[in-house]
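Protein in question filed below.

…
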Amino acid sequence: MGERAGAIVIRVTAPPVDGKANAALCAFVAARAGVPRSRVRVVRGAASRDKVVRVEGVEAAALRAALAP
């Protein structure tokens, strides 16, 4: 994990096949944020390296703190 141009960078080891990398990313974010997996979803960039993820039920500052390296 890290930060680049104001965005949080997370690398997963799951292959980008059949949505496995997206699922791994969402599971990781959910675990760190302390929310159920169902509250995390990729809203933009599902097929690209750069993604926008929505996390419901967590304030932005708290989420950034939970994901801080």
